[in-house]
Amino acid sequence: MKILLLGAGGLLGRYLSREFSGHDLTALKHQQADITNTGQLDELFAQSWDVVINAAAVCDFDACEENPDETAKVNRDAPLDLARRCATQGSLFVQYSSDYVFDGDEDRLLTEADEPRPLSVYGHQKADLEKLIPEICPRNLIVRVSWLYGLDGKTFMSRMPDLLANQTSLRTAAGKKGCCLYAADGAYWTRQLVESGRNGLFNLVNPGETSWEEFARTALAQMSFLGLAPACKSIVETPYTQLGPGWSKRPRYSCLSTEKIASLFPPGPRPWREALGEFLTEWKSVAASRTV
Ligand SMILES: NC(=O)c1ccc[n+]([C@@H]2O[C@H](COP(=O)([O-])OP(=O)(O)OC[C@H]3O[C@@H](n4cnc5c(N)ncnc54)[C@H](OP(=O)(O)O)[C@@H]3O)[C@@H](O)[C@H]2O)c1
């Protein structure tokens, strides 16, 4: 398949670049292709693509709250432009969404059939994509992910092994329930969905309810088990509701059901503790190679 990957330098983009390397892949980082630059996109779409994967986004929650119009250019307008271009070519368009499309008021697993009710600007931008992309581009795959982490990622969970290795005390927001996704698994399951010709909306996480504090405690225990000698001796939890007004716009409970993807590819994505163990093993081997 001839595949165009945009946002290839980001956390998920880097794992997608590796995962799709067996295909005829053109993987472009932000500096190589800006998805808001229509001139650049005209040039790229002078070729035809079987699949276009958009991993580019502004994921900074606060930046979206502070600059809704500016961030919408990347998070909403550009993906819709890409969807139109894919519709014209008849290509499959792959876009990532987020658990932040939900308000988090109910303590139950959220499915693809549940109605989005976003609280935040970022959540609204993603909810708009979930609604509008299928109307624009018949061949679409919308992959709804949550709490992504992986090597060299900027997210709190991505930085967890470094923080636990180097700090004697780790501060974390607490009280939010959700699901996490190791970016390697995000890329692997994206490839399964693309290669099997699936269309539509799919939740994709490593199943099992967790929280930031539980993730931290589990990472600490797993690092000790792997002989990684973390410096961290205590995890200090602050209820997320006490962290400022912006935090109330994050869903309190946003665990995603993976039943749909698991029914197509049993048993589906592996549980989060197993995926975290794999990430720590990857982190350990890279940390060792970087000190050589
Ligand atoms: N991270 C999470 O926890 C999370 C949770 C739910 C959903 N998602 C979604 O998952 C997808 C992948 O997220 P991620 O964690 O991989 O994000 P990431 O690490 O922040 O990567 C995003 C990439 O997009 C690039 N980018 C920003 N503006 C661009 C533009 N105008 N044109 C081209 N590239 C641009 C960024 O480049 P610069 O760094 O140079 O700006 C960065 O390389 C996104 O759709 C995100 O909304 C992520």
Shape: globular
The secondary structure category is: alpha/beta
CATH topology of one domain: Rossmann fold
The CATH C-level class name of one domain: Alpha Beta
pLDDT < 50 runs, ≥5 residues: none
Average predicted local confidence, pLDDT? 96
- Measure the end-to-end span: 38 Å
Strand fraction: 15-25%
How would you describe the overall organization of this protein?
There is one protein chain. With 292 residues, the protein is α/β, with parallel strands linked by helices. The protein has a domain at 2-147 and 181-207 and 255-270: Rossmann fold, CATH 3.40.50. It has ten helices and eleven strands. The strands form three sheets. It has a six-stranded parallel β-sheet, sandwiched between helices. A three-stranded mixed β-sheet has the order 6-8-10. Strands 7-11 form a two-stranded parallel ribbon. β4 (92-98), α5 (121-136) and β5 (140-145) form a beta-alpha-beta unit. α1 packs across α7 (183-195) and α6 crosses α8. The longest helix is centred in the first third of the chain and has 22 residues, at 68-89. It is globular and about 55 Å long. The termini are far apart. Residues 6-7, 9-13, 30, 34-36, 55-59, 74, 96, 98, 145-148, 153-155 line the site of NADP nicotinamide-adenine-dinucleotide phosphate (NAP).
